[in-house]
Write a structure and sequence with these properties.
Elements lengths: L2 E4 L4 H9 L6 E3 L9 H11 L3 E4 L8 H4 L1 H25 L2 E7 L22 H16 L3 E6 L2 E2 L12 H9 L4 E5 L7 E2 H12 E2 L2 E2 L10 E4 L2 E2 L4 H12 L4 E5 L24 E3 H12 L6
Parallel strand pairs: 1-2, 1-3, 3-4, 4-5, 5-11, 6-8, 7-13, 12-14
Antiparallel strand pairs: 9-10
């Protein structure tokens, strides 16, 4: 079986490469394939002829694409049209396709959380670009898994374009600050990259082979896969420093304390109703800190 992982140098891509390592996946990043170039995508996927393509590449500069029309075009190219090109290429050769999306496709007004079948209604350009990607995937292939996640964190990425996770940013701030202000808004779920990579494998592979078309355990479609439990950014920071045993004063503040160009959903908890639930985010965070900071309290 042949697997291609797009964006293999990123946080999620690296976790996927490790999780699928026994199947010797082919990792492609920007230097190997420009996924925004339609004909190049079709040619490369046809040449490699994989059974499964996993797209972990994404544009995630949420505020940048709100400030600049040019950046919004780039976001649409990477997050929107490129997944459609990959989906089309997979459809032509009969391959399965996995694409990752985000809670930012929702408005955040539904306080009971969002299930897989709820109607998206993004409130930012970034969210709109990710919704475009979902639509392009569904338009170009029937054999897709769209996985929505939120607040990704995990081992350091080798990609220069990667953005630091919230927890890593907090640890950086704690090196020079004893008191840190953190927004006590935006209720959401964290997603641990190695857990998501495992879930992706479980969703698509069975005993080293693609799940049988006739006895497929998980149907094609949209899935919400996040670590269980929700919190605000402030609550996330409290848990981080508690696990590290650091005496950092965390001050809860409203969102307007840190004005940002892009609006964020106020309550975008993803409800996983179709897949076995992952462990709680606090447990995943403890494992992450043990790997990143061995010997420190967790």
């Amino acid at each position: 079986m042949k697997i291609i992982i797009i964006g293999h140098l990123g946080t999620l891509g690296a976790a996927l490469m490790k999780t699928f390592a026994d199947l010797k996946p082919i990792g492609l990043d920007r230097d190997e394939l420009d996924i925004t170039a339609h004909e190049k995508v079709l040619a490369k996927v046809s040449e490699l002829h994989p059974d499964l393509v996993i797209n972990a590449a994404a544009y995630n500069a949420v505020d940048k694409c709100e400030e600049s029309e040019e950046e919004f075009k780039i976001a649409n190219a990477i997050n929107g049209y490129a997944p459609g090109f990959l989906a089309e290429a997979c459809q032509k050769i009969g391959a399965d396709f996995v694409h990752y999306s985000t809670d930012y496709v929702f408005s955040g007004e539904k306080t009971e959380g969002y299930a897989e079948g709820d109607d998206p209604d993004p409130i930012s350009n970034y969210g709109a670009s990710k919704l475009l990607g979902e639509k392009e995937v569904m338009k170009n292939t029937k054999k897709y898994f769209i996985i929505r996640l939120s607040r990704l964190f995990g081992p350091d990425s080798k990609s220069q374009a990667a953005k630091k996770s919230f927890f890593d940013s907090m640890c950086d701030l704690a090196k020079t600050n004893q008191k840190i202000k953190v927004v006590n808004e935006e209720v959401d779920c964290f997603t641990y990259a190695p857990d998501l990579a495992w879930a992706t494998r479980h969703l698509t592979i069975e005993d080293g082979e693609l799940q049988s078309r006739t006895t497929k355990k998980y149907a094609y479609g949209i899935y919400h896969i996040i670590n269980e439990g929700s919190c605000t950014w402030y609550e996330g920071a409290l848990e981080l420093f508690k696990k590290l045993g650091k005496k950092i004063i965390v001050v809860p503040v409203p969102g307007n304390e840190f004005p940002r160009p892009a609006r964020r959903p106020a309550y975008s908890v993803l409800l996983n109703t179709k897949f076995p639930k992952l462990r709680n985010w606090e447990e995943a965070l403890a494992e992450y800190l043990q790997l990143q900071c061995p010997g420190e309290k967790s």
